[in-house]
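Q: For a teaching session next week I want to show students how multiple molecules come together into a single three-dimensional assembly. I've collected the sequence lines for a complex. Could you give me the predicted structure tokens for the whole thing so I can convert them for display?
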Amino acid sequence: MKRAFLRKLFVGISMLATLGFTGQVWADDEAPDVLIKRLSTEVLDAIKADKSIRSGDMTKVVALVDSRILPNLNFQRMTASAVGPAWRQATPEQQKRLQDEFKILLVRTYAGALAQITDQNIFLKPLRAAPEDKEVVVRSEIKGSGDPIQLDYRLEKTPGQGAGWKIYNINVLGVWLVENYKSQFSAEINAKGLDGLIASLVERNKANANSKK
Amino acid sequence: MMMTCYSRQLRGVGALVVALALLALQGCATVARPDPRDPLESYNRTMFGFNDAVDTAVLKPVAKGYRAVTPNWFRKGVSNFFNNLEDGWSALNNALQGRKLDTSDNLGRFMVNSTLGMLGLVDVASDLQIERHPADFGLTLGRWGVPPGPYVVLPVLGPFTLREVAALPVEMKGQPKYTLGDQDAHTVLPVVSLIDQRTKYLNASELLDSASLDAYLFQRDAYLQRQRNIQYDGNPPEEVTEP
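A: Of course. Below is the structure for the complete assembly, covering every listed component.
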């Protein structure tokens, strides 16, 4: 009798502890490398499962990027940093348009690369970060039949509990995406101003949309 | 970026290179706000346009044709063959850089693939999980402390830093694909290698066109970033940003 009670008590306590523990995990943010691993696996699996994506159905790829990847990006920060100092002089309307057009450009680019994935798998390198870090770099490699593809992410911790991590820069094969637009953007701004840059982005996106479905 | 590595292979174009470079220099316009890494921007842009025309007229159609008429296993074998030759050269360069593990990996790959892999046609070493550590002489110079110097676009050969240009003569003498076999092989191997490389980057080069506002700047910045990344083993220190 006493033993049975003790056992029940023990089970009860361990259940509570488990609950408490999982509760703790839910309240805390998902670690940045765990987030990247989960996202990459989800996206790779979705591509592997869908023939029409691999045969280049752009609308499907874009939909995948929109639903899985974009919610985890801080797109405002990406655009602001690509635009540089001129961002602060931009009106809210200009900022919004820059952000929208830059997003279309990057999604298409990124989606085009994703559509070529076949047998690849993702491998994460050990995360080098302290628990209190607000910005981290997660390094990964995509391995398939060819040479491995280096794919790194910069993430920032969103202020507030449970708000999670957001990606604000992506590195493909050693090239940081946002950095790679800085010279081009500042050249446009110097020559034609912020509206000129917006116009160029619109034009590029239109040309891309017309060249392929 | 990667779409231009293919261009390293051509040789025997020295005179043409010099002539074209001089021609391009004459047509120089001034650049509004020069990037400190690219003092030759005006000349480089001219050469970029020339290379782009050559690529559109010759290289790209040839690569597309090659991809259309050959089966996948064939192209794979050709790529493996050239990768294997490169592994041998990389082993030597890794040794020159004092990297023991990378050297033994590459040497191991070269020996396994040259024998079991039938002269490199089959990449057995990758199945055995022996990693590649590509290294050319330009990288060796970089690891010895030679700064990259300004960005230079060479006719046909594409993007370089001055350091990589300085390493070119050694590459020409050392890379097996330029020195292997008889006179015929000296002509054939570099050309096949060039087609092989261009074919691999067909998709990537299309991406360059659709992702950029200014293809020249996009390629330049990507190339310079990537070179830095390789030199620092994928973990370069933060660059000092300009004011």
